[in-house]
Amino acid sequence: MSDSPRVPNVVTIPAGAPFLRTLVDGLLDGALIPGFAPRGDPLALADATIFLPTRRASRALRDAFLEALDGRATLLPRIAPLGDVDADMEAADPLDDADADLPPAVAPLERRLTLAKLVSRFAETLDRSALALGDDDGPLIPATAAEAIHLAGDLEALIDAIETEEVDIAALDRLAPGEHDQYWAITQSFLQVALRLWPEHLDEIRRLDPSRRRRLQIDAAIARVQAGGGPVVAAGSTGSAPATRRLIAAIANAPQGAVALPGLDRDGLDDASWATLIEGDEPALAGHPQRGLSHLLRALGLARAEVRELAPAPRPLAARGKLVADALRPADTTDLWSRAPLAPAESAAALGEVAIVATAHPRGEATAAALALREALETPRKTAALVTPDRGLAARVAVELERWGVAIDDSAGQPLGAARAGALLRLAADAALDPTPANLLALLRAPACRLAAEAGLPERAIDALDLVAFRTPLAKPGFAALRAALDARARGPAARFGGADRAQAARLLDALEAALAPLASLAASGPTPLVQLATGLRAVYDAVAGAPEGDDAEELGRFLDELADAAASADPISPRSFPGVVEALMAGRTVRPRRDRHPRLRILGPLEARLISVDRIVLGGLNDGVWPPAPQSDAWINRPLRAELGLAQPERRIGLSAHDFCQLLGAREAVLTRAAKAGGAPTIPSRWLQRLAAVAPADYAAAEARGARYAALGERLDDAGRAPPTRPPEPRPALELRPTRLSVTAVETWLRDPYSIYARHVLRLEELGPVGPAPGPAELGDVVHAALEAFLSSGVAMDDIAARENLLRLGREAFGDLAERDEVRLMWLPRFERIADWTLAFERGRNAQVTTRHAERTGAFAFPTVAGREFTLNVRADRIDLLADGSAVLIDYKTGRAATARQALAGFAPQLPLEGAILREGGFEGIAPKAGALGGMMLLRLTGRDPAGEIIDIRHKTEPLEAVADEALKRFRQVVDRFENPDEPYRSLSHPQFLSRPEGPYAHLARVKEWSATGGAAEGDGGEA
């Protein structure tokens, strides 16, 4: 019997071999653990334990056992997810029977809120001015509770790193603040307190930090392995954490233990480069794919040659592995690229089934990736997966696959905050604590909101509340102002809702107020316990969600339960900051819908894809900064300090990503995709692609040529051919649909843009105003008209000493409750005061000429058309003044942009001339100038600026105003008769001089910017709309 020490039992499975199936076959056949070959014994496997990096890999291993055993009844081994350093905490937790005597881990939300409390209290002790910090300096002083929670997340990551990498926190005391920047003095003083108080707090509540509990679990598992027992295997781990390395070492040295490493480079990298990986301390070396494995072998006391290969990879894939190893060698030895590791034929075969796709933009990349996945389904039983860290690309690919009716499983799921239930919760919190019209409407329109249905109200009740109340300027926020808006006289689109609609809207408003009350009642409070806010939010959510169903609703319910349990750990917060707190706490939580997905396609993140084998792999997002990711800065400790403390450098994650990339390239077919631009800016190809191109330029170019096929197919997929130039719309509605009544104020629109008349009076489309508007020029115009009408009707003489005060009082009354708003009080009321002074001065100067002033008088003129129909022209004149000589003066108020006298005389702004014609035709009851004489037409432009008013006198140099008015009516009747012809189209912007200003509520419907940019079309060459 030999006394030589036992060599640790360590094997490797190359990237080109299916890892889990190779592991299972090796275990069953005795190749993995000599003397243990349980393929024929259905009970022997039950004594074995297998540690894997993640839960997903654990589930896949079970499937691999079932496949290898071909359905035979067998007791499977115990399979435990071990958790690498960058695996998520949930995936790393259950080493089930290793924690019997351990206290439970502190709940995630309780941990986050407690640490946020520490951060906030520390921030309160800092004197920003004494520290010479500006308002934007540094993240260490949170301005809101939500910022404190985000910063607490960074603190959690630091605690995890310290625990996982087993760093002695006493080293913090040895770092001299004077050697570093001022932020370190702040950070050090806080961390010295926080890292002492946090464990003490956990001891008080008899809980463990999750990262410490995981380490203690691994230590317990090590003790069990060393105590002896059944066969034990650690597979797929690179030993990133010290505790994991100790467990791997214990397993490798156990009598029936074995370690299976993923993709160890046994001979592709030369010995000098391998030694550099082990001994070198340059940060760039941490980004090498073999760095972690080289350090693990050093810890195990093994050389590469002592690690046996469990099964070989197929020759082309083995060649690919050598080519990739050469491409990613350390920078110091890239001079060896000149010594090609492969013969030309081998190199060509290595990349023979690799396609490299470079598209112009992210959508093209998604389409190409989706095509590669869809193509795989044409081969029976063929499997494929997209692996990418780019969540945007993953979402776009899933959408692209839907065009073929393919639903794909996305391992990352959907962020809870973006799911229907999560979005409803956020909207409910916003609406309750800040009940602006926009927030209330967003809540009511949310797909998951069931408030109207639960109240037995139709969708039209939401429409009525929206158009009648939410789009009206309110005197103040709140439900009382909204109720007042429902009772007020409506105009525009809101006028379409009658009394019954308004009553239903009022019922909905009552239900909404009652639903939001549990949380809204706290809005005006000072700092409030989070427990109260969480309880109120739960009540609000239950009221607006009804009886929600679905995976997202279940996950949200768990979140709210956890929030209620953990809320006592938080300091009281301002209710206004609560929505931000909820959003911060929901960040990172996902929903994984339990829906049918295609069994042969998957979308995976790099972590989830570890050890998973498919026939075709699509690696997406291969741009530098995406894959590999850019090194992340730490909010608490910078790079030099991490090195001094013994924490891993950020580049280590790049090394892990590089190892993932190499492993994933072991699939028989590989499609690598990237977009040349993202966000409108050029991108840089992943450094891995750049190195492959440098090592094998000809074979890389051939792979690009193969990938160009997917890019070209993607472009053709949605190519509808060259679109003909867009033509201006020329709708020709039937005669009975054409208007027979029009306001004189709409005639200018008809002459300039007939399409707008078609949209408004034939299609009956009206522009919707903004939600929750502030008072603006339109409201000022209403006030000016109402105040001047009331003033002129009051009988107060213009030169009366009380005239000014009377007019100002009427203006304030016209503003009504809006006068309480700051913008009205500070801007619009002073403007009206200047308008009042200017108007009184204007009127006093005319007292001797004017005998009677008529304000806001309605009139009409009806006439037969060429088609035998009657057309009525309506008018509401702002002012008609009768002069001492018997003539009449027509006045129109304009508080915004006003037409010029030239435009009015040329017929493009015929409002006042047409009013004069209607007056001459007797269209204003009780107002008859002597012999139809017109003494003047003028626009009063009343803006309240400097000057406050302006007179635009409309007067022809040679023609009397009577002739101007008669000519305007004649032209208008000609226009009416022309449009009485069903073949006459309602063209958009029929006069070329108006194309330079394609604004207006219907310009987008007419696609003005599209066809005017290409020169439009000749008259008669337009299209229907």
UniProtKB/TrEMBL annotation:
Pfam families: PDDEXK_1
Domain PD-(D/E)XK endonuclease-like per the UniProt entry, residue ranges: 741-983
Name of the molecule in the record: Double-strand break repair protein AddB
Origin species: Methylopila turkensis
